[in-house]
Amino acid sequence: MDKEHPKHLALHLIQLPLPGFVSILHRVSGLLLFLALPLLLLMLQYSLRSIETYTQLMAILAHPLAKLLLLGLLWAFLHHFCAGLRYLAIDLHYVRDLAQARNSSKAVLAASLLLTVLLGAKLW
Amino acid sequence: MVNRVVTGAHYGLRDWLIQRITAALMAVYSAALAAYLLLQPHLDYDVWTGLFSGQPMRTFTLLFLLSVFYHAWIGIRDIVMDYVNPAGVRLAIHVLVILVSLLYAIWAVQILWGM
């Protein structure tokens, strides 16, 4: 290996192409969902254990900050979901050229944001 | 073609496949659950616990959660391999993720069968 020319990638200067942007968001959303797992499991436990813990959980989730957190996680889930479907489509060779790669990336960003707004509005 | 000697642990294809199988399973489960909940006129404690009272629903929910943990382990490992270089830190994160995932799996059983 040639070690004389180290590459210094200026990450803040690199402009990602749209599919790259969707890809990095897929990683970020996945990481966020993993970090939120204990919270989500705790919520499942409180919602199922008894009517008292269920009522307690609903009271906590009624707080605006809790709603904001849930809305963020809802977006993370929906983006990961839509971007994941896109990757499955790519694996099945449904996305063949650059134009399709860009269009499907736009569709993923738009669909996950739209679904977040729609489901968010439905829940509150 | 270069006569390349393939090295490594040979887990790449298996994990690639498992990541996609678990993804498909999670997608079907979450879409079905979302559809069921959105179609409920009154979603309250009784409807919610009623949904999780049967063995099939508990089994599929556990299968979904185990898929989440396995899928997440592969994803986190890929992220760590890309961005975390010191071997010690990498190993520490891997061990931590495996341990919490196992604990989450035990916790999931307790939640679903202890309600």
Spatial shape of chain A: elongated
- C-alpha end-to-end distance of chain B: 60 Å
Q: Any idea what the radius of gyration of chain B is?
A: 19 Å
The total count of helices of chain A amounts to 4
Q: Remind me, CATH topology of chain B?
A: 3 helical TM bundles of succinate and fumarate reductases
Q: Main sheet of chain B?
A: none
Structural class call of chain B reads: mainly alpha
Uncertain ranges of chain B: none
Question: What gap, in angstroms, lies between the N and C termini of chain A?
Answer: 57 Å
Helices and strands of chain B, in order, run as HHHH
Q: Mind telling me the CATH class of chain A? A: Mainly Alpha
CATH architecture of chain A, by name, is Up-down Bundle
- The beta-strand count of chain A equals 0
Which protein chains make the most extensive interface, counting residues with beta carbons within 8 Å of the other chain's beta carbons? A-B, 24 and 24 residues
Strand tally of chain B is 0
**Strand residues, percent of chain B:** under 5%
Average residue-wise pLDDT of chain A: 92
Q: What number is the mean pLDDT of chain B?
A: 93
User: Number of DSSP helices of chain B?
Assistant: 4
Question: What CATH architecture label of chain B applies?
Answer: Up-down Bundle
- Total number of distinct structural domains of chain B: 1
Structural description of this entry:
The complex is a heterodimer of chains A (124) and B (115). Chain A has 124 residues and is mostly helical. Chain A has one domain: 3 helical TM bundles of succinate and fumarate reductases (Up-down Bundle), CATH 1.20.1300.10. Chain A is built from four helices and no strands. Chain A has helices at residues 18-49, 51-61, 64-91, 98-123. The N and C termini of chain A lie far apart (57 Å). Chain B is an all-alpha fold and 115 residues long. Chain B has a single domain (12-113), classed as 3 helical TM bundles of succinate and fumarate reductases (Up-down Bundle). Chain B has helices at 12-39, 45-51, 55-83, 87-113. Chain B is elongated, with a radius of gyration of 19 Å. The N and C termini of chain B lie far apart (60 Å). Chain A binds chain B through residues 27, 30-31, 33-34, 37-38, 41, 44-45, 47-49, 51, 54-55, 77, 81, 84-85, 88, 91, 119, 122, and chain B through 20, 23-24, 27, 30, 34, 38, 45, 48-49, 52, 68, 72, 75-76, 79, 100, 104, 107-108, 111-112, 114-115.
